[in-house]
User: What shape does this take?
Amino acid sequence: MTTYVYETIPQKKGEKPKVFEYRQSMTEKALTHHPETGEPVHRIISGGYGLMGKKEFSAPASAPSGGCGHGCGCHH
Assistant: This one.
């Protein structure tokens, strides 16, 4: 099962979207309505976390020094 992030679609002026997580199979269609309230929703597409092994990475020659900080994977 995968955890997806959804956001409600405001229906009234000034209403703020609400963000929630929902676990579902990758083969299931994206939700169109909040499972508890029935509010219309859409899935948030994000970069995710991914998994990184112990492989060494090196920054490309054009990468600035310092940059992202220690442990980002592009600077050592």
Summary: The chain has a mean pLDDT of 79. The two ends are 35 Å apart (CA to CA). The chain has no helices and three strands.
